[in-house]
Design goal:
about 300 residues; alpha/beta; Rossmann fold; two-stranded antiparallel ribbon; 9 helices
Length: about 300
């Protein structure tokens, strides 16, 4: 066996092993991936082992570098999966259990988690909501591009979004307002099913600025409406579109929230939000307040 083949063999086996890992739940699979990579951790970057990098492994597996590093961090911090609560979602694990101690300390010292803002659904303590407004951090396949979402914030796969225990925090009748883009339009049905909603209608945000796109140059986004328990609209005069300029990356026009409040009864829960909003409970891993941005993820 040649030296090159010998050097590459460990890496090929690692890639094959990680690709084959699939357990009953997402969290268990993430832990297993991290644990398998840790077995060969000391070989990465070494000339005698081909100078392989975690970044290259992420690309070969078609996952984000951030997610792969979180898998490794997860397995290193909790060597045995039984040490972790099985009720936690991958989002809650990466944004709470694996949060950077330095950033956690910063948040605690400045006390910038106001009432009405939480970092995990588990912090809701059984509260129920009649309206959910969600702008998921979608993970695109082309994360290497300049405008990719991973350049701005940690992202989630559709499976990870589906796994969030949103259904546990809903009233018997409720509405879901879900932002999506063309790339994930047909994946949203899975999220409706997982969270307990039936698709009913759509709302369109029209942007005067031209955007990116491989075919049409995108200048709009979709807000899909899901219904639970047959809940009807509070108002019948809310139109299905607005035109508003885009601002910072991923930020949605605040006028959309006003439309939602007219259409849907509360209590109101926003998922993946960045600002405290009067009359709403907001869950997110980033808080923008007083023109400053605070993050507490690792």
């Amino acid at each position: 066996m040649s030296e090159l083949v010998r050097v590459e063999a460990w890496y090929s086996l690692l890639v094959e092993d990680v690709r084959s890992l699939e357990f009953q739940g997402i969290v268990m699979t993430k832990h297993a991936i991290g644990k398998r990579i840790l077995e060969d951790e000391l070989k990465f970057g070494k000339p005698e082992y081909g100078e392989k990098r975690i970044e290259g492994l992420a690309k070969e597996l078609d996952v984000s570098q951030w997610d792969l590093y979180k898998c490794i961090q997860f397995a290193r911090k909790y060597p045995e999966f039984c040490d972790v609560s099985h009720n936690l979602s991958w989002y809650e694990i990466t944004h709470n259990l694996l949060a950077s101690p330095k950033k956690k300390a910063l948040v605690e010292s400045i006390e910038e988690l106001p009432e009405g803002f939480v970092t995990s659904l588990s912090d809701l303590n059984g509260q129920k909501f009649g309206c959910v407004y969600a702008d998921p951090p979608w993970r695109y396949s082309n994360q290497a591009t300049r405008g990719s979402t991973d350049n701005h914030y940690p992202t989630l796969t559709v499976d990870e979004i589906c796994a969030l225990p949103v259904g546990e925090h809903l009233t018997e009748s409720a509405h879901l307002h879900l932002w999506t883009t063309n790339a994930f339009l047909f994946d949203c049905q899975r999220i409706f099913d997982a969270w307990g909603f039936e698709f009913k209608s759509s709302f369109v945000w029209v942007k005067p600025q031209i955007g990116m796109g491989n075919y049409w140059r995108n200048a709009h986004e979709f807000l899909l409406l899901g219904v639970r328990g047959g809940l009807t609209a509070q108002a019948r005069d809310v139109k299905s579109w607005i035109e508003a300029k885009r601002t910072t990356h991923s930020t949605k026009p605040e006028v959309v929230r006003e439309c939602i409040e007219r259409l849907s009864p509360g209590p109101y829960l926003e998922l993946f939000g960045r600002r405290k909003v009067d009359g709403w409970m907001v869950m997110g891993n980033e808080l923008v307040a007083s023109n400053k941005r605070f993050q507490w993820t690792g």
